[in-house]
Write a sequence for this structure.
């Protein structure tokens, strides 16, 4: 069973639909027991990182998530809260990935939010099995995780940043695999097969 | 570099897509999900579904349709048409829309932008602006399909929309819409200088060159089109190949 953590950070429907299209069984939950028992855990999230951290604390999920030993995938803000710190609300996060989350600085060719399809490269994980460097995935974000030793994919928007991170059983993507067409479906499938 | 996006726009009335699309080898060309999947396979980067129903029943049918679109399509999609309250936006978000586009309602009640962005984030809010260049040279935002000029001047209204929390601007020049004579690229370029959020160009494309121009000279981030795709003049896939040959960054 796959657990999608519901911590009141945006709509989970697109993640649910992506799993449905792959024929995977899942539940949407904030129940500690179910999350601990799940084979795979997804931590989606759209919105503000400080609010996301507060919601995880309010739901008593901070230690639960940190103690998981099965594969966990954070998506977008769900990934950012797994980093060390976020500039968005100047908040300390779960400190799983050794990366800090910073805001993009707008420039003539750097629109903020970074919205749309961009290429990922330097792919270094089974998460990207079957995909080539240069594959396009869909991003929507104004804050980005810096490059760090946990970086398993990079992308560039004014600066080079971590498009995906991995530490032990924890994975995170800054982009939205659930909205990234066939490439995204492959990444979710790979995550389910880890 | 983030790729320039090509976005087909589908008009939906009483739950069915309208406009001449009989060239497609689809089982049911009126089915919005099937048509959307077709465009996604061809390489569309996003889709826009515009509800042109005039009735309450039509609106309810559209909400159910949005649920089916969300189930069946694996790229982002925006919905627009008749959204005039936070409740309307919530209903469409719950149905699975990735973004909503608001137009006349934002002009009548600009704080609607703040309310929706505060609740669901800027990435959810596209502010559509139909503007017309008046005889005195001033670009004025219009409502009701371009028929009524408002008191909003294009550039100040765009800045205001960004400040209130819009995540993207969808700009249509009513002087060019439907003319197939290209886009006002200088106006697009100036908009790009004035705001930092992405701009989608709409209305006026008659050729690949027009689209290439607005993405380069006009510095738009995306181009939205309806008739050139629906009438089969060029496929999304071929358009993107042509743009790539012109050294424009596109996903293909």
């Amino acid at each position: 069973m796959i657990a999608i953590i519901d911590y009141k950070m945006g709509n989970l429907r697109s993640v649910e639909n992506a799993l449905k299209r792959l024929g995977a069984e899942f539940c949407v939950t904030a129940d500690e027991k179910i999350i601990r028992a799940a084979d795979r855990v997804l931590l989606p999230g759209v919105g503000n990182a400080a609010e996301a951290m507060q919601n995880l604390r309010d739901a008593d999920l901070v230690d639960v998530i940190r103690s998981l030993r099965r594969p966990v995938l954070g998506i977008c803000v769900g990934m950012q809260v797994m980093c060390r710190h976020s500039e968005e609300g100047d908040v300390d996060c779960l400190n799983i990935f050794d990366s800090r989350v910073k805001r993009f600085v707008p420039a003539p060719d750097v629109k903020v939010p970074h919205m749309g399809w961009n290429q990922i490269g330097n792919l270094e994980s089974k998460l990207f099995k079957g995909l080539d460097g240069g594959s396009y995935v869909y991003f929507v974000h104004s804050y980005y995780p810096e490059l760090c030793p946990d970086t398993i994919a990079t992308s560039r928007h004014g600066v080079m940043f971590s498009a995906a991170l991995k530490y032990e059983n924890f994975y995170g993507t800054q982009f939205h695999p659930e909205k990234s067409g066939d490439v995204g479906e492959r990444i979710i499938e790979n995550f389910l097969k880890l | 570099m983030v790729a320039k996006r090509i976005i087909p726009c589908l008009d939906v009335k009483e739950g069915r897509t309208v406009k001449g699309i009989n060239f497609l080898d689809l089982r049911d060309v009126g089915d919005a999900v099937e048509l959307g999947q077709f465009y996604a396979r061809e390489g569309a980067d996003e889709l826009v579904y515009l509800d042109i129903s005039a009735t309450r029943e039509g609106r309810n049918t559209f909400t159910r349709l949005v649920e089916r679109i969300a189930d069946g399509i694996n790229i982002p999609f925006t919905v627009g048409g008749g959204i005039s309250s936070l409740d309307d936006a919530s209903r469409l978000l719950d149905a699975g829309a990735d973004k909503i586009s608001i137009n006349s309602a934002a002009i009548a009640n600009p704080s609607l932008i703040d309310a929706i962005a505060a609740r669901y984030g800027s990435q959810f809010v596209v502010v559509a602006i139909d503007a017309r260049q008046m005889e005195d040279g001033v670009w004025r935002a219009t409502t009701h399909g371009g028929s009524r000029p408002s008191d909003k001047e294009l550039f100040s209204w765009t800045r205001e929309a960004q400040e209130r929390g819009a995540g993207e601007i969808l700009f249509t020049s009513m002087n060019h819409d439907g003319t197939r004579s290209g886009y006002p690229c200088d106006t697009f370029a100036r908009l790009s200088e004035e705001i930092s959020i992405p701009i989608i160009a709409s209305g006026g494309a008659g050729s690949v060159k027009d689209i290439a121009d607005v993405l380069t000279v006009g510095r738009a981030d995306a181009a939205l089109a309806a008739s050139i795709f629906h009438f089969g003049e060029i496929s999304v896939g071929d358009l993107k190949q042509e743009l790539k040959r012109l050294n424009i960054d596109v996903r293909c």
